[in-house]
UniProtKB/TrEMBL annotation:
Coiled-coil region: 311-358
The protein, known as: Uncharacterized protein
Keywords per UniProt: Coiled coil
Taxonomic lineage from the root: Bacteria, Pseudomonadati, Pseudomonadota, Alphaproteobacteria, Acetobacterales
């Protein structure tokens, strides 16, 4: 029996290759983001109660047991072994943190654990900070583990208006549609450079045309819904916006329909577009959801997890009540602290095991396009290597009979040509070259600025500008750019000469 959607099991599609019957634990799902100031400690507890009461499997709150959660330390247990713990940390007469841990044992020998801690005024601007984590680990040998998903509690917090501000963006499960204005351009630049948010990564969707994207509006809205509380989804309005953003960000932005995953403090670290592994919007959505969730789960934690809340609460209770505690009560508190430390050690061991299980023996990335790019050197545009491999396959098929190519190889190469899409960045580069060679008075400065972003460096500047391949861009032919204006025919010839020199004139066929 797998816990239903409300619990968080099967909220995201997962990579089944990461599952292992022998693994001690899977990588946990975790997220952390600011919330609006809570009206009371009871308001957060009420959200937890509503979440569990909305499930079809939980029985730990049966028969009005939620009344027992009013104290600083509560522990409920159902006959099936399901447990709910609640802990509050007080600061004088007021509370400073409240958290819960929910354990649900299923019939397949697994334990699904969800925990969350709300820490007061830990976010920017007196906002609260919530940290939530879900794990799945084995209770019996051979249990088939599943990668944990986002718990429905995250969705309900956002639905009920708890979402706070994450620097330039608000925590939401709706896409953020940029507009054609200066403020949106500044926001897009900050996203590209990693300066827009602190708590959540950003999935940036560039435009392939005016109000057109690789994903349709329904797919974008579904993506934002699924990633609410995990990552922001930001959508740019049109290609003209992309061009302005490119100038503002020194070419570090994504464009031409490409999706970019931006990490706080780092900027765009991953790019996605339709290609061999992702043939449609559904494949692309699955890939970016998994990547965003993985990135958020592995980001540094600033809030508290359950064991840290336990440690702080136990210590505070012992200090506050030390003059009134009996020897037996003191001993019980020390035993609770020891148990909590053992729990913390167990959590760390499971995390180490999970990282090892996921990373050891995973060489498949070496055969992906990004793996090729890492091994073969930098690309002059995103997807260049796959485009050239596709071209090589097509040329080989054209002379297949002359070289006596076998049927199986012809079949494989035919699939490469048919299924390997031409990268959208190629047509974007072609359009950029056409645009840069339109104005004879600005052709030199426009071309130099463009080609610097695609593998060239400037070597000399007299009557002509000489550009040569930058380090790692072997095979790019030297280019000579005239500094004096030229007639229209000369500009067209110059553009075609550049296309031949960088070898893109035949890749779109």
């Amino acid at each position: 029996m797998l816990p239903p959607r409300h619990y968080g099991a099967p909220y995201f599609d997962v990579d089944r290759r990461a599952s292992s019957a022998n693994a001690l634990n899977m990588l946990p799902f975790s997220t952390e983001f600011p919330l609006k100031p809570a009206s009371s400690r009871a308001a957060f507890v009420a959200e937890v109660i509503a979440w569990l009461q909305g499930t079809s499997y939980s029985t730990v709150l049966a028969l009005g047991a939620e009344a027992e959660l009013d104290g600083e330390n509560a522990h409920l247990r159902s006959p099936t072994g399901e447990e709910l713990r609640l802990r509050e940390l007080r600061d004088g007469d007021d509370w400073s943190a409240v958290g819960f841990r929910h354990d649900f044992p299923d019939e397949e020998g697994r334990l699904w654990r969800t925990e969350g801690v709300l820490k007061r005024s830990a976010g920017v601007g007196a906002q609260e900070l919530v940290r939530l984590r879900t794990q799945c680990f084995a209770r019996t040998p051979g249990a088939h583990l599943e990668s944990p998903r986002k718990p429905y509690l995250v969705k309900s917090l956002l639905k009920n208006g708890w979402g706070g501000n994450d620097n330039l963006l608000s925590i939401s499960d709706q896409p953020f549609w940029l507009k054609e204005n200066k403020k949106s351009l500044e926001t897009a630049k900050a996203i590209t450079l990693g300066e827009a948010t602190r708590w959540l990564p950003i999935l940036y969707i560039s435009a392939s045309d005016n109000n057109r994207w690789i994903l349709n509006r329904r797919e974008i809205e579904k993506l934002a819904y699924d990633l609410g509380g995990v990552a922001h989804v930001v959508v740019e309005p049109n290609r003209a916006f992309s061009l302005r953003l490119r100038n503002e960000s020194d070419g570090r932005n994504v464009y031409g329909g490409t999706l970019g995953l931006s990490a706080p403090g780092a900027g765009i670290v991953k790019r996605y577009y339709l290609r061999w592994q992702m043939q449609g919007g559904k494949d692309l959505s699955v890939a970016v959801r998994a990547a965003a969730s993985s990135m958020r789960s592995q980001m540094p934690a600033f809030g508290w997890d359950w064991t840290e809340l336990q440690e702080q609460a136990l210590r505070a209770h012992r200090e506050r009540e030390k003059k009134r505690l009996t020897a037996a009560e003191n001993e019980r508190l020390y035993l609770e602290e020891i148990e909590n430390l053992q729990d913390k050690i167990g959590e760390l061991e499971r995390q180490i095991s999970a990282h090892a299980d996921v990373n050891v023996g995973r060489s498949d990335s070496d055969f992906e396009e990004e793996g090729f790019a890492r091994q073969l050197g930098p690309e002059i545009y995103l997807g260049e290597i796959s485009d050239r491999l596709r071209f090589a396959a097509k040329m080989t098929l054209d002379i297949a009979d002359q070289i006596g190519l076998d049927g199986r190889t012809k079949s494989i190469l035919g699939r490469v040509v048919e299924r390997l899409r031409v990268a959208p960045a190629l047509s974007e580069l072609s359009r950029d070259l056409e645009r840069a060679t339109k104005d004879p008075r600005r052709v030199a400065s426009e071309l130099v600025s463009l080609l610097r972003q695609h593998g060239y460096v400037e070597k000399s500047h007299n009557k002509h500008i000489r550009l040569e391949a930058a380090e790692g861009f072997d095979g790019l032919e030297p280019l000579t750019i005239p500094t004096t204006p030229s007639e229209n025919r000369g500009l067209i010839n110059l553009r075609k000469q550049i296309e031949r020199a960088i070898g893109i004139n035949r890749l779109t066929n």
